Each structure stands twice: as C-alpha cells, then as structure tokens.
Amino acid sequence: MAVSDHVDLSTFMEGVKKRNPGQTEFVQAVQEVSQDVFEFIDDKEEYHEAQILRRIAEPDRVVSFRVCWEDDNHNIRVQRGWRVQNNNAIGPYKGGIRFHPTVTESILKFLAFEQTFKNSLTGLPMGGAKGGSNFNPSGKSDSEVMRFCQSFMTELYRHIGPDTDVPAGDIGVGSREIGYMFGQYKRITNRWEGVLTGKAIEYGGSQMRPEATGYGAVYFLQNMLQHAGEDIEGKTALISGSGNVATHAAEKITQLGGKVLTMSDSDGFVHDPDGIDQEKIDWIKRLKNERRGRISEYVDHFTDATFHQGKRPWNVSADLALPCATQNELNEDEAKALVTDGVIAVSEGANMPTTLEGVKVFQDAKIMYGPGKAANAGGVAVSGLEMSQNSERISWNQEKLGDMLTNLMEDIHDKCVEYGEEGKRDGQPSINYVKGANIAGFKKVADAMLAFGVV
Ligand code: NDP
Ligand code: 2IT
C-alpha cells in the first residue's frame, strides 16, 4: 500500500467512512480509485497541498426532494428524488438518472463519483453527476410513469440546464421516460434546449446514442483483446442484464463473430448453448421495451435454452464476460469461477458490477479486465456529442457517429495503456486497466481544479 507524505490510504479511507456513515457503495467506489491515485500522487506535492482527492470525494452538492404522484387508482404516492452533482471542473455536470426501488443516496453518490472520472476519460468537456429515485417502474402503466416523470422534473428542473447539468438515462430510464421528462422541462421553462440527452431522434436526439454504451463496451473489449493479439471472432461470451446496455453489447458481440451464451434480469438468467443471435436479441428487445416482460419467457420461445431462477450467469464456462446489469453483481467466488473456467477478458458495461474482492481476483490472475468507468464510457461520450449537436443545431449521421464512437473508445483504451502498463503476462507487457483508467481520469480533473485555486 502506497503511503503519501501526508496521510496514508487507510487514514484517508477511515475519514471517508466516518463522513459517509452506512454509505457502503460510495465508500467502495472511493476506495477503488484512491488506492491507485495515492500511488500516483505520492511524489506530487501540489495535489496533496490542494487536497484534490479529498475534494473530489466530497460531492459539490447533493439535492434531495419529495416526488408526489397519483397512481391509476387515485392513491397519492410519495417517492424520494435526488441529484448528486459531484464535480464540474471540466464541464457542466453530466450523468444519468436511475429509477429503481433500490436507489439510495449512497448509490447515487458512488455513481456520480465514478462518472467524474469516466467523463474525464472521454476527453469531452463534461463534469460528473447522477440522479434518480426509489420509484419502481416495473408493473406501472404508461400514464403512471408519465405522471411520476412529470412530477420528478417539476422539482429537478431548477437544478439543471444545458450549461449547468445535463441528465440522461440509466437503469429504469429509457427513451419513454426521457420523453416525459423533456416535455415537462420544456413546458415549465418555455425553452427548447439540450437539457437532457438520450432524446428520441424527432426532438434532438443523436444517432447511435441507444447503441453507444453496449457497442462501446464491446469495442473496449476488442481493443483489449487486439492489444494482446486476440480477437472476438469465434469466442463465447457471458452477458448479464437484458436492458439497453446488455442487448446492444450482445448485438455487437454477435456482429463481430462471437457467440453470446447468457442474458439475465433480476429474476435469473437464461443459458442458450446455440447462441443468442440477432433474431433472439430482437425478441428480447421487444420483450423488454414493449411488453415489459421477464427474461424467463425466453425459454418458452427458444426451447433449447434453460432458465436458472435466482442465479447469475458467472458459473457458465466462456471466453469473455460482460456484466451489464447493476453494481456488485459479480463477487469474489464468481470471479474465481470465471478464472478457473478460463475466461480471458472481462469488460464492464455496468457501473461497478464487480466487488473489490472480485476485482482483485481478476488482477491477480492477470486476465484483461476493463473497469466500467473506461469500458462503458461510450454512452456518455455519445451523450456529449448529442450536446454538441444540440448546441450547433445540427444532426450528424449514423456513420459519422459510429466512427466517432469507435475512435473515442480507442482513445480511452490508449489512455488506460499509457497509465496502466505494469509487469508482464506471458512475456508481454500487462495492462492494469483499473489503474490506467483511475489515473488518467483523475489527472485531467485534478489539473483543472489546481488551475482554479481553492474554491
Ligand atoms: P436498463 O434499465 O435498460 O436494464 C437494466 C438491466 O439490469 C435489466 O435487465 C434489469 O433487470 C437488470 N437489473 C437492474 N437492477 C438489477 C438488480 N438489482 N439485480 C439484478 N439485475 C438487475 O438499464 P441499462 O441497461 O441502461 O443499465 C445497466 C447498467 O449499465 C447499469 O449499471 C447502468 O448504470 C450502466 N450504464 C448505463 C448506461 C446507459 O447509457 N444506459 C451508460 C453506462 C453505464 P430487471 O428488469 O429485472 O430489473
Ligand atoms: O452511467 C452512465 O454513464 C450513464 N448512465 C450515461 C450518462 C449520460 O449522461 O449519458
């Protein structure tokens, strides 16, 4: 463990724990970044003096508010909403909104903290934020979702703006929810402006935004594999989740000649040894986006597949793994099972899906491991491009945006290599992608903060 001239990592982390009681996910995210950043700043006095890491690990502001809405039976329902604005040193606050019953302040603080480094890695001018509510969209009618979204925006609108803070989607917030929220913002402010990203094409959305996170996570995987002389073609892959990120990751793996064996939701996973091809992926997209059904229904249609109730896919043997559902969905034992079964690379479509102990298993085994803040940055990167298009009042075509996404992911991979090269694996330089992403992401934000003096 690296020790700084001033305070060592464990003393620093004790302080973080004391100031954020019970916020285990936030503490976990800060711990994961701090172990690398401490080593990097060990001999860099200016970062210590300005308390840069301490400042990034304290959100600029956490806004919480009541969201009141009426359900279809005329019951008044009360939810809690938040926006965590973590850091705007390099650009307006930017990050998604999550609607899920498990949402807490700790989860949104971890996500806003991670987002700060992720957005920095994209090279685009975006600070880090996250928001959401403990509202559960599952089983709600369209009108209930609309009334909730409108009420949520009635509170949120005063804290956001195209040069202040630009939210987008995340778990439970897709095109439908963005539409309802954008409509309400426009109604309240009488302004059409690029205040949200992930909009539909008809009202200022960007080509490639729906695909960007999942495709980007596969491009990152491909970059890692190619750096080691490997490729996706002919490899098998485990994917968790069956939402926006998971379905698009599955699509790109399939397009590049890989075979997807699993997908999941919070009830369990499906295992299809024949491979989840484009036709099956399209079926899953319709299941999730239109009928809003459960992944267990898959085995009624594709009968060679099996459904594993209450289980996660990590004990199936495969070459590649892409966790694309939620935080802490891959633990130490599951990481060990993947390594034992010969996984060669892991690319995280979700944010912090692997526990700290699981990450250590991957690092000790020296497999290629792309952490979420690098691997899933394609989504927010194309959101950044949506902001540029809205500001310029133009729309770029699919091909241009596809090329831009490919290049952005390559640049992020190169930054991780630059800051993360360490040791050897089979005689080749081995890349610690966690360290590379943490340091490269930190440095840009830290240098901007230094330029501002103490504020
Ligand atoms: P969606 O809401 O589209 O899909 C989420 C998927 O994950 C669903 O299959 C859902 O199953 C499953 N899931 C959610 N919570 C849990 C849970 N507690 N346990 C098990 N499964 C769960 O969300 P996205 O695809 O947009 O997001 C997935 C991940 O990717 C998240 O970690 C998000 O932060 C991250 N991400 C998203 C980006 C984006 O652009 N959308 C960008 C970068 C990262 P069920 O339907 O049963 O709830
Ligand atoms: O976690 C993420 O990067 C997102 N949910 C996307 C954020 C965005 O602003 O597009």
Task: Describe, in plain words, how this protein is organized in 3D.
This protein is α/β, with parallel strands linked by helices. β7 and β8 (268-271) form a beta hairpin. The protein is globular and about 65 Å long. A seven-stranded mixed β-sheet has the order 9-8-7-6-10-11-12, sandwiched between helices. Strands 1-2-4-3-5 form a five-stranded mixed β-sheet. Helix content is 47%, strand content 17%. The longest helix has 23 residues, at 398-420. NADPH dihydro-nicotinamide-adenine-dinucleotide phosphate (NDP) binds at residues 100, 102, 169-172, 174, 213, 241-246, 265-266, 324-326, 329, 349-351, 376, 379.
Keyphrases for this structure?
globular, 14 strands, 455 residues, 17% strand, 17 helices, binds (2Z)-2-iminopentanedioic acid, binds NADPH dihydro-nicotinamide-adenine-dinucleotide phosphate, alpha/beta, 5-stranded mixed β-sheet, 7-stranded mixed β-sheet
Q: Which helices and strands occur, and which strands form pairs?
A:
Elements: H1 9-19, H2 24-41, H3 45-49, H4 52-56, E1 61-70, E2 76-87, E3 93-99, H5 105-121, E4 128-133, H6 142-156, E5 165-168, H7 175-189, H8 209-227, E6 236-239, H9 244-255, E7 259-265, E8 268-271, H10 278-291, H11 298-301, E9 306-309, E10 320-322, H12 332-340, E11 345-347, H13 356-364, E12 368-370, H14 372-375, H15 377-392, H16 398-420, E13 421-425, E14 428-431, H17 433-452
Parallel strand pairs: 3-4, 3-5, 6-7, 6-10, 10-11, 11-12
Antiparallel strand pairs: 1-2, 2-4, 7-8, 8-9, 13-14
Helix pairs in contact: 1-2, 2-5, 2-17, 5-17, 6-7, 8-9, 8-15, 8-16, 9-10, 12-13, 15-16, 16-17
